Amino acid sequence: MKKSLFIITILSMLSACGPRNLISGHIEGLTNNTIALRITLIDNNEQHTDTLVAHNGKITYTTPYDEPAIYTFYPAQGVQKIEGGTRRFYGCSDITIFRFDNERVRFKARMDSLFVTSFTARGSQLNKDWGNIHSSYNPLLIQSALLQSEDIPYEQYTEQKQKIDEDMTHLCQDYIRQHPDHLISAYLLSGTGSLDDMIEYADLISDEVRNSPFSVIFQNIETQKEKRLKKQQKEATNRMGVVGTDAATPDFTLFDTNGNTFSLSSLRGKWVVLDFWATWCGPCIASMPHLKEYYQKYAGKFEVVGVVNDSEEAAWEKMVKDMELPWINVINPKGVAEEKDLTNVYDIKGFPTYIILNKEGKIHKEYLGAQPDFYKELDTILK
Q1: Distance from C-alpha of 231 to C-alpha of 251, rounded to nearest angstrom
Q2: Whole-angstrom Cα distance, residue 358 to residue 348?
Q3: Could you report how far apart the first and last alpha carbons of the chain are, in Å?
């Protein structure tokens, strides 16, 4: 009896002294044994890569870093072949593991074709929580990925994509509200929506989580808050100290498709929509028919000025003609000085961007992307 107890004690000690910096996992459904790995050190966002080979779906990886890090495994089969190349759906075709301490982490996952359809982990509460969230979050990622392959009208795609994105946002927000003292809540902050939303939900999280290795996330949020404040202060100074409190929209004169010059100031006294777009921008092209509908719906009540950017003149002229765009169309030429480039003058962040100008020529509202709110605002001001 004493001998048996002695053996059990020794075995327990050997087990306790085993390697702790180990990630082991079993991935069912693998059709390709190659697995890429990206390691992200949380403190400085430094990244490293490695490649593993699974044996009968099993992998074992000894982590080379003591620092807190995120280990993301990318099974090779999670790459889809498409015309002209390949694409990977990040988030739903990979496996993420967190290591903050020298704990040994074990996980189980399943791949169905391109996607990881199930995932659980043990070894730390952080990884267990992530496994629990995965069961609700990953199906939404997969829905979003599959939506890209569906042959549906752009408006229908946009509506469905927005609904999925809102569901993912609400999932992150709900979890943070219910678990402000869980480490994974800090990681979920990036999925809570806009910067204002991130700030709001960051304030809910406990001090213990704020002082964890995820503290860098909260530092980045504070940095963004400071940048935004400085920008607002600078804009306020420009309005008050340079051009007054009722500054008009910057005027411009550009060539239209007929080779004539057009000046924005010539439309003073009308509601105007500036449509910043590009010939290579899919969402820009897809939104044109809807804008044409509104142009006809409120004919004579407002004007549209299409400002094409970063585009070849011949391609622009052809597209305006083929799509029968009925409004004023001008080109923001390539190669102009930064201070004359309208994307800098109007601080354009992406295409399409719609800027509504009131009858006095001042900016009323601005929208990045073909948002439903843009058309609702047109209905409000033009009825």
Answers
A1: 22
A2: 19
A3: 92
Question: What rounded mean pLDDT belongs to the chain?
Answer: 86
Contact present, 98 and 133 (Cβ < 8 Å)? no
Predicted TM-score (pTM) of this structure: 0.59
- The helix-helix angle for 372-382 and 282-297 (nearest 10°) equals 20
Residue 316: DSSP 8-state? H
The contacts of residue 30 (CB under 8 Å, 6+ apart) are 54, 57, 75, 77, 111
Alpha carbon 219 to its chain centroid, in Å, reads 20
Half-sphere exposure of residue 86: CA atoms within 13 angstroms, side-chain side = 9
Please tell me whether the peptide bond between 352 and the residue prior to it is cis, using omega within 30 degrees of 0: yes
**Segment 298-357, tens digit of pLDDT:** 999 999 999 999 888 888 999 999 999 999 999 998 878 888 889 888 888 888 999 999
Mean pLDDT of 32-42: 94
Q: What counts of helices (H) and strands (E) characterise the chain?
A: 11, 17
Domains of the chain are 18-124 (2.60.40), 150-229 (no CATH), 253-382 (3.40.30.10)
Compute the distance between CA of residue 95 and CA of residue 22 in angstroms, rounded to an integer.
Answer: 16
Q: Cα separations (Å) of 48 from 19, 42, 77, 154?
A: 22, 12, 21, 38
Cα gap 50→38, rounded to integer Å: 7
The pLDDT of residue 337 is 81
Calpha distance 286→154 (Å, rounded): 6
Q: 14-28, 37-51, 314-328: lowest mean pLDDT where?
A: 14-28
Determine how β-strand 302-309 pairs with β-strand 328-332.
parallel
Q: Note the pLDDT of residue 73.
A: 96
Strand partners, 365: 356
